[in-house]
Amino acid sequence: MRLVVIGNPAAGGVDGQTRAAVLDTLGGAADVLAPDLEEPGGVGAILAEHADRVPVVLGGDGTVHAVVAALLERGELGARPIGLVPLGTGNDLARALGIPLDPREAALAVVRGRERALDLLVDDRGGVVVNAVHVGVGARASEQAAALKPVLHRAAYAAGALLAGLRTRGWRLRVRVDGGLISDGRRRVLMVGVGNGVSIGGGTPLAPHARPDDGQVDVVVSYAVSPWARLAFGALLRRGRHPERGDVLTVRGSTVTVEGEPAPANADGELFPPAPHRTWTLRPSAWRVIVPPA
Known about the structure:
36% strand; elongated; Rossmann fold; 4-stranded parallel β-sheet; single chain
């Protein structure tokens, strides 16, 4: 394979020594530092310049998100697989796919691995979700954690969750899955999670039974809005046991709509401002990742 490494200089684990080790393992790959991932057309320009190469992401879920979005916009999503060397803070997609978190081992997996087709969530504004999206307290926690990441690294997620949990009363949200109303907005909702992958925040199992290639997403709705309920929900969420609670609803489907009081959202670690309406639709086997050999 001819490769181009697209590195995110803001990713938590990217440094000169690690980059050199990865490039040495990949052998002969073009090396590009991505521009601001929020800048329209930036990643697309890299993909156009290296159109004959397989993109290898050197970063986290947010960088994968940006590359997938650019491939979708260019009409190349089904034609160009993606390699991943996970050097972000959370690396939840890599965890779901069994990609090693050690940079050298992940680079070896790109060289020796196989392609795996994955599902993709596309929202009603054309945005993508490769791993998971959550609305409500989880997104508020990410906002709190963002300023703490440089100091606390992965532990920033837990600190942000604690701060958000103490300050959140919940939102009145209606949730529809495949057209069926599963939450009517009369009860306040702490969080709505939509999991294509299993975890968020560096290993917290939002959707413990999700698979990123089974043609369905796992939807989690938590009504745990009282102070004690929030604490109990948070403790069980860390262990993937929150679906056992009576105030947690779990369903599966392929189209999810959340509407009502504007609530913040987090898609693959990328924060989005409060909005009164969002819809995500699953596209089965829409893109491919190089994963370790079976």
